[in-house]
Amino acid sequence: WGGVHGGFLYAMADTAAGAFARIKYAQRNVTLSATISYLRPTTHSKSLTAVGREVKVGGHIGFFEVDITDDSGALIARAEVNMYFLDH
């Protein structure tokens, strides 16, 4: 088999979105909802990278995207994550 489990990729994306939001806004946050699209398998990758970016933030709610790429730069998965800011 040799691939990375989708649940691991989901957890990686969720963690990246939460960390990005926490660092940028210095506020505790929790995930309201998330979806992920798996775009290709990771059978030959030695490392994966998750990069988060803000799409929109207003009030208590933030919307973020996370791209997960392999060591060749190929896009493996993309997640859309809605976060709720607890300290707002």
Features:
alpha+beta; single chain; Thiol Ester Dehydrase, Chain A
How would you describe the overall organization of this protein?
The protein has a single domain, classed as Hotdog Thioesterase (Thiol Ester Dehydrase, Chain A). It is 23% helix and 48% strand. The chain has one helix at 6-25, and strands spanning 29-38, 48-58, 61-70, 75-85. Strand 3 and strand 4 form a beta hairpin.
Q: What count of helical segments does DSSP give?
A: 1
Instruction: List low-pLDDT spans.
Output: none
Helix share of residues?
Answer: 10-25%
Label the overall shape: elongated
Tell me the strand order in the biggest sheet.
Answer: 1-4-3-2
The second-level CATH architecture is: Roll
Spatial extent as radius of gyration: 13 Å
Superfamily (CATH H level) name: Hotdog Thioesterase
CATH class: Alpha Beta
Oligomer: single chain
**What is the total number of structural domains?**
1
Number of strands: 4
End-to-end Cα distance, whole Å, is 45 Å
The succession of helices and strands, N to C, reads: HEEEE
Mean pLDDT: 94
How much of the polypeptide forms β-strand, as a percent range? over 45%
How is the main sheet built? Answer: 4 strands, antiparallel
CATH topology heading: Thiol Ester Dehydrase, Chain A
Based on helices, strands and strand pairing, what is the structural class? alpha+beta
